[in-house]
Amino acid sequence: MPSTKASPKQDGAPRDEGLRLRARLRYLYQGSQPPAVRFRLTVIVIDLAIIGFFLAAPILRNMGWAFYVIDYLIAAVLAIDLAARAYAWSDIKDWLKRPIVWVDLFVLATLLFPIWLFNLGFLRMLRLWTLLNSDFFWRTVGRRFDDTRVEEITRALANLVTFVFVATGFVYATFRGHDGIAGYVDALYFTVATLTTTGFGDVTLPGPWGRLLSIAIMLVGITLFLRLAQAFIRPSKVAFPCDRCGLQKHDPDAVHCKACGNLLCIPDDGR
Fold first, then answer.
1. Could you give the CA distance from residue 57 to residue 228 in angstroms, rounded to a whole number?
2. Confidence of residue 19 (pLDDT cuts 50, 70, 90)
3. Considering only CA atoms, which of 268, 239, 242, 236 is closest in space to residue 257?
4. Taking Cα atoms as reference points, which of 167, 166, 163, 138 lies closest to residue 225?
5. 256 backbone dihedrals φ, ψ, rounded to 5°
6. Alpha helices in 31-148 (DSSP H)
7. Range scoring the smallest mean pLDDT among 56-65, 70-79, 97-106
8. What is the helix (H) or strand (E) element at residue 28, kind and residue range?
9. CATH number of this structure's domain 147-235
10. Where do the Potassium channel domain residues begin and end (predicted)?
11. pLDDT of 80 strictly over 90
């Protein structure tokens, strides 16, 4: 009677395929070679297109069933991307400890359950924050810059823009139909006017909760504006950690670490 026991070679085949897939994904998501960079640039462009859809979603909801078809297509793309990133990571438990991952998972949940999480749809714009604050983005785009100013300005601008549209979505979802908030543009107008402390007064939020929200928008908005201004004014630095004290940023022409005096050897691109 022939044996039905699988050979070691057959048992190891699925494992070998899984290892090859993981190595391939790790190369694409973390590699520095031109094909990997082109792949990540493509993913970033798709991400920006998805964020554009999130931005226009309050207006596009009138499309009816077509809106939900696009919603689920985006959910599929985002789910595949997150699964690939998780599989490419060396330790999935370590990957799940990152706050950015949980934000992306929540965004995915709003896409998978658009009816039940309708009032939280404005939080999808957090995808802009997770993208521009991710190692994935700066390993691809930021590698072209040898100083930290561009990165700091981009991060500060991303924080401000994300806050504006998250606050706008919250105002629209919570106060729609009250005191001039008839549409999304009205909510955006109120948010920008409040955030910049212009306060024309033609659109206001009712009750004490409306006043408290206005105060919160003003305080957070001023803070984010100051951070953006600091990013523009602050002297340019390069990311070069000192091997003695660990100081991460130094002046581009620094010879010694200003914290411990250690001799530095910052690469010069000849500019």
1. 27
2. confident
3. 242
4. 163
5. -125, 150
6. 34-60, 65-88, 92-96, 99-112, 126-132, 135-140
7. 56-65
8. helix 8-30
9. 1.10.287.70
10. 162-233
11. yes
